[in-house]
Amino acid sequence: MSWHTYLLFVGASFLLSISPGPDMIYLLSRCVAQGPRAGVAASLGINLGCYVHLLAAITGLSAILMTSALAFTIVKWAGAAYLIYLGISALLDRSNVQLTSSKLRGRSTRAIFLQGFISDVLNPKVAVFFLALLPQFVDQQAGNVIGQLLILGLTVNCIGLAVNLAMVALSGRISAKLREDELMAARLRKLMGVMFIGLGAKLAAERA
């Protein structure tokens, strides 16, 4: 895996992390409802859930690689197709971001952490995303595929945690922006969509 490939992955991970989604809405809602401490608990719970998906993805992809290099290539192609699908969906998405705090009851820090963890672990879209994204940046010719997957997974999870904690620190301003400026959220979704389509197209061009 070259530095160029890795930096491209970092950019994609950062863009994914700042794009509005269920995890961001949950942690910002907790911040608005109960303060930064609750937001930190939600962030840590969500991040721990991502490590469950990372472990599952590495285990599954490693098993596929040991079975057949061709099977691993097929998984990469299927993942590229899924990324393009996500990109098109993001470009066509016209839904509004809903950020509310009035319906959130006060909960203990532990309960908030567990809710963030469980909701992330039980989200099948996160699992599929890990399986789709990580293989696109693995260089099979470089060897040590498991090590590459681990580095990529740790990178995306660390970036996600850093972004989430930054959002907690700026929760008042960010949550207000998401409530008042739906255009900004829509632009982030479309930028993410273009990135995902580009990743899929890049893979297709390289393998043509």
UniProtKB/TrEMBL annotation:
It is a multi-pass membrane protein. The keyword ATP-binding does not apply. The chain crosses the membrane at residues 6-28, 40-64, 70-92, 112-133, 145-167. Keywords: Cell membrane, Membrane, Transmembrane, Transmembrane helix. It is found in: Cell membrane. Its main location: membrane. It comes from the Bacteria. This is Lysine transporter LysE. PANTHER family: ARGININE EXPORTER PROTEIN ARGO, ARGININE EXPORTER PROTEIN ARGO-RELATED. GO terms for cellular component: plasma membrane. It comes from Terrihabitans soli. InterPro entries: LeuE-type. GO terms for molecular function: amino acid transmembrane transporter activity. The lineage of its organism: Bacteria, Pseudomonadati, Pseudomonadota, Alphaproteobacteria, Hyphomicrobiales. The keyword 4Fe-4S does not apply.
